[in-house]
Amino acid sequence: MIWLHTYLGIISGWLLFVIFVTGTLSYFTPEITYWMMPERQVIVSDGFDRNIVVDEASYTQTKTQTNTQTKTKGAQESQRFQIEQSLNYLQHHAKNASSWRIYLPTAREQHWYVQWREGKIRHTVSFNKDATLLGSTTDTKGGLFFRNFHYTLQLRGYGGRYIAGIAAMAMLLTLFSGIYTHRRFFKDFFTLRKGKISKWTSDLHALVGIVTLPFCLMICISAIMIYAIMYTPFSANMHFEQGERGVNKAIIPSLPPLTNSTSTAANSVKSSAAGASEYMLSKSIAYSAILTSLKAQWQEPHAIKRITVEAPGNENSRFIIERTKSLTVSNRADRLVYSSYTATPLEGYEDESAPATFRRIMYGLHQANFATTGLRWLLFGLGVLSCVLIASGLIIWVNQRRTNLSKGQKRIPLSLHIMEKGNIASIMGMAIATPVFLLANRLIPADTLNRANMEISAFFVAWLYCLVHVIFRPAKNAWFEQTLVAVVSFISLAVVGICMPFERIKGAVGTADITYLSFFLGFVLCGAVFSALAYWLRVRLSASSLSGATCNQDNLETKKE
After folding, report:
1. Strand, helix or coil at 385?
2. Are residues 242 and 249 in contact, defined by beta-carbon separation less than 8 angstroms?
3. What was the pLDDT predicted at 243?
4. Predicted local confidence at residue 190, as pLDDT
């Protein structure tokens, strides 16, 4: 078991570290995107959820009760205002579209935009909090880069998913073998020896492993179950003509396809007045449908995330209302379906099957969209500790092999040399490439073509630099020098975040935009942590140099005698 734990960790350690770092950052995907797109403004605040839909009387009462928490007009704070403005824009600019989608902002995702498709072309238009169009938006992947890289490894097709799945399976075996290796839980938990680095790193590894064990088990099991059909496609290919896609169609409920037949009510509407499309999507009917559905089926008003209008120019058009996913662990949103002409309820989605619900629960546990702010920070902290667990395990193996080398053995084995260099390139590479990616977001001009890909290229170029640097430098020097680069990167990121653009940070201070300002504190904290690490490495490097000089002096004196 000890052998299995050791070598499984060595083989998959670098990959697991990268996956866990990007996965930990993915807990704040909307927040990272918000920081990387400074043109966005706070539309929904934590103090007053402007997405709540209420009737006029309760809306007036709510406005009066929360007057100290809001600064904009009541009409602009309601979701009704956002829906009406979105429909108005789509009616005038997307008449020939095959479908419309309205995405409403939430407290985490401050993005209000509409989408429509004309043929194969998809159009997207974003709005500010006062319903004015955002003239230009930053071309960036934002936090989605970390989330996508977490399970695709930036590979096309399904190759990255297979590799990430194998890594998750290896992590599970490593955890189970680690339980056997450190089966004396209570003794290991309260043991932290000082002195030699090999001793306290081993104790730290055991301590962090015990603390993060439930979290790591949940993450690995849910990651495997999400793509269980893809990893074991044999049964799906045998029983379904389209394999995995056939299984998904069988277990995931969907709406019946739109028919060409038209209802009598729709025909009468069309013949009685010109411009039936305006009537079809009139503000009163659309909002009445939303309000009625919330009162009748959801019992109390809740935030709406998305509205989809299928075939907006046809009599059989459907109006689909989707609730936010932040209220359920299963990562499933409640949806209501109405006729766009009469606002009458239509046949909606069937109840999900047990396999589909189980997979959605795995999705929900893995992504934690249901988590409140405090719980999300707790999961983020456990993710950071999991990264420490993996990194400390890799370092322990190298230190133990160096200790076991015979005193007369001057040549380091190739395997140890590769592991030592690879540890630095993977651990410090992520510590440098991440702030460089964020720095590129601020430094690359906004009008640059293919700007989003340039940010991603900056990430990989910085990572490649770390690999090349460690090849030509001694390991101890490489640790120290790359830690210094990480310090400079995070401090530079904090400074650039204030200066570029200065109006954005000024506005964030004026409006108490905690989300935006917390990034500055995070960059400073990371810079301080790496500064302390650099100081500690510098002390060890100086002590090692002094010890080496003393040994050389003793050898010279011995030869003279």
Report:
1. helix
2. yes
3. 76
4. 60
Measured CA to CA in angstroms, residue 196 lies from 209, 396, 531, 536 at distances of 20, 12, 22, 14
Tell me if residue 73 falls in helix, strand or coil: coil
Reading the block at residue 367, the tokens are 């992504």
Nearest to 22 by CA among 377, 387, 374: 387
> In what helix (H) or strand (E) does residue 172 lie, and over which residues does it extend?
helix 159-181
Write the DSSP assignment of 299-324 as a string of letters. SS---EEEEEEESTTSTT-EEEEEE-
In 3-state terms the chain splits into helix, strand, coil percentages (rounded to 5) of: 65, 5, 30
Distances (CA, A) of 390 to 12, 284, 480, 515: 10, 57, 20, 29
Residue type, 310: E
**What is the SS3 assignment for 106?**
coil
Preceding amide of 501 cis, omega within 30: yes
φ, ψ for residue 384, nearest 5 deg: -65, -45
- Extended beta strands in 304-387, E state: 304-310, 318-323, 335-339
Whether pLDDT at 289 is above 80: no
Amino acid at 223: A
